[in-house]
Amino acid sequence: MFANPTLVWLLAGAVLCLMELFLPTAFVEFMMGVSALVVAAISLILPNVPIQIALWMILSVASIMVVRRLLPNRRVAILEEATEAETLTEILPGQTGRVIYDGISWRARSEGEYAIAPRQKVLVVNREGNTLVVVPEKLINS
């Protein structure tokens, strides 16, 4: 009544590798699929299913870690020429608010001890994660 473990590993490996084509996950699914194919070959020699599962998990994690080190870091860059933004909400000193930057709403905080009113032009001076650091434009121009 139980399926042949080798066929199950082959099917799981093929499905995981094909899923990477339709749902890209930075090679996570692909490496899990390759690990399943390796375990399918090993299952011909080692018929113990719990050991096969443990081996698949170890191979998957190890191969994902290796591939992540080999892939270049992809960082979302802020457009250098777009440094002007407009506040949507008031930004009080030490707190965050919202700005429209390059057509997208971002969380922002004021650089220094300046309160910035809504609908004010600001300049983006830095980015910390998903938070923009801004200064009032009138402060720079005065």
UniProtKB/TrEMBL annotation:
Assigned keywords, A-Z: Membrane, Transmembrane, Transmembrane helix
Gene3D superfamilies: Nucleic acid-binding proteins
The keyword rRNA-binding is annotated on this UniProt entry: no
Subcellular location: Membrane
Domain NfeD-like C-terminal: 91-136
Keyword Transmembrane: yes
Transmembrane segments: 6-23, 53-71
Membrane topology: Multi-pass membrane protein
Coiled-coil features, chain-numbered ranges: none
Signal peptide start-end: none
Cross-referenced Pfam families: NfeD
Chief place of localization: membrane
Classification via PANTHER family: INNER MEMBRANE PROTEIN YBBJ
Protein name (database record): NfeD-like C-terminal domain-containing protein
